[in-house]
C-alpha cells in the first residue's frame, strides 16, 4: 500500500517544458510594414521586438490598427512587457496569462535574451487531465460510499492493452498534447481501478491512447485496488457504450476540447 504523503511527490511542470523554442521576432528599428508581412506569412498575431538579441517590447496585430505602414516598430510596439523565466512554474505562467488577458509571454534569460515563447494554448495543454492527490483520494472516498468497499492505493505499471476504457470519445488536439508530453517525459500517471480480472481506466484516456499510438506497452499509474468482486457503475457504462479496448474510443478530429474553445473566447480581444 502506498502511504498518502508519497503521492504528493510529483515533478512540477515548468515553462521550459511547454514553450515554443522557434520564435519569429522583429527588429526594433524596422518598419510596421515588415510586421504586416510577417503576420501574412506566418499567420501569427504578434511578435517579440528585439534590439540586437535583447527583448525590448512586443507588437501585436491590434497595435497596427491606426498606424501607417511606414511608421517605426519602436513607435507602434508595446513597451510594457511581461516576460517569463524558463524555470517558472507553468501554473504561475497560467495566472499571469489569464489574469492579464495577454495571449503570449516571451521567455527570456536573466539578461533578457529571447529563449522562446509560451502561449495561452501551451498553458491549457499543460493543465488538461492534470492528476492531483485530491482527485485520487476523492475517487476512493466515492467508491467507499457507493459500494461499501475498502480500496487501497498503490503506484505501479499497468499494461496498456489491458485497460478497459470508460470514456467513448477523446479530442484530437488534446491527444496531440499528450503525445508531446510523453515524448518529452512529462506525462503524469493515469488512474485505474484494479479488481479481480480487470483494470478499469478512470482518468487518463488521452494519455493511454497517446501511449498506444507511440507503441508504448505500459504506463505509470495510480492503482486503486478493489479486492471485492463487484461490478462498478463505470463498468456497466462501458458495457452500455460497447467499450472493450482503447480501440473502441472515438477520436474527434473535428472538435476542439470545450476548455480550449471557451478559453479562447474569454481572452480574445477585438
TrEMBL record:
Family annotation (SMART domains): CBS, ParB
InterPro entries: CBS_dom, CBS_dom_sf, Diverse_CBS-Domain, ParB/Sulfiredoxin_sf, ParB_N, UCP004699_CBS/ParB
Keywords for this protein: Amino-acid biosynthesis, CBS domain, Methionine biosynthesis
Domain CBS positions: 19-75, 77-134
Keyword flag Amino-acid biosynthesis: yes
The keyword Glycosyltransferase belongs to this UniProt entry's keyword annotation: no
Biological process per Gene Ontology, one example term: methionine biosynthetic process
SUPFAM superfamilies in the cross-refs: CBS-domain pair, ParB/Sulfiredoxin
PANTHER family in alphabetical order: CBS DOMAIN-CONTAINING PROTEIN, CBS DOMAIN-CONTAINING PROTEIN CBSX3, MITOCHONDRIAL
The protein's name: CBS domain containing protein
